[in-house]
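Data deposition worksheet. Section B asks for the primary sequence of the deposited chain exactly as it was used as input, without tags or linkers unless they were present during the calculation. Section C holds the resulting structure in token form. Section D is free text for depositor observations; keep each observation to a single sentence. Incomplete worksheets are returned to the depositor.
Section A, Depositor: J.P.
Section B:
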Amino acid sequence: MKITDAKVGVVYKEASEPYIVLKYSHTKMGRGTANIRLKVKNLITGVIQEKTYMNNSTLEEADVAKKTVQFLYKDNNSCSFMDMGDYSQFIISNENLTDELNFLRDGMMVVVTYFEDKPIAAKLATNEKYQVTYTEPGTKGDTSGKALKPATIDTGATVMVPLFINHKDEIIVNTDTGEYVERA
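Section C:
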């Protein structure tokens, strides 16, 4: 595949390891050739790095497949999932799920990426509903701008929410950024 096709979310293989593109930027400097800068995440090690390629470079497509599965539980080292088609269970290391760990809830459906028939990463829906399990009561008064306070959701993660959110409210959280979206 051409380097210019490596948009955000594309998975490619380099040195026999899969990388997912997190950020894509195209820069042209004066008379020189254009460069493509990619911010990529190694799907096996979880390392995020920036790579620069010439505009005429090519990338090897990775043999990846995606399947919707159910999250079962997590322990200190890994997370367990179940394929709903054949009810087989498998695990993915917590090192490969760093961003997703805070928002995984038992029974949640996620999309798992398989590299060469081995599960290596999981992706949650972008906006998920969570219940606030603890937050300080909002204080009344004049606030200019966007006033936020910390709130703990039912997965144990802390999200910054507006002052009007209370204990037991249901909120929508962007699982990619960890930010509050709206009240559910």
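Section D:
The two ends are 41 Å apart (CA to CA).
The chain is about 0% helix and 55% strand.
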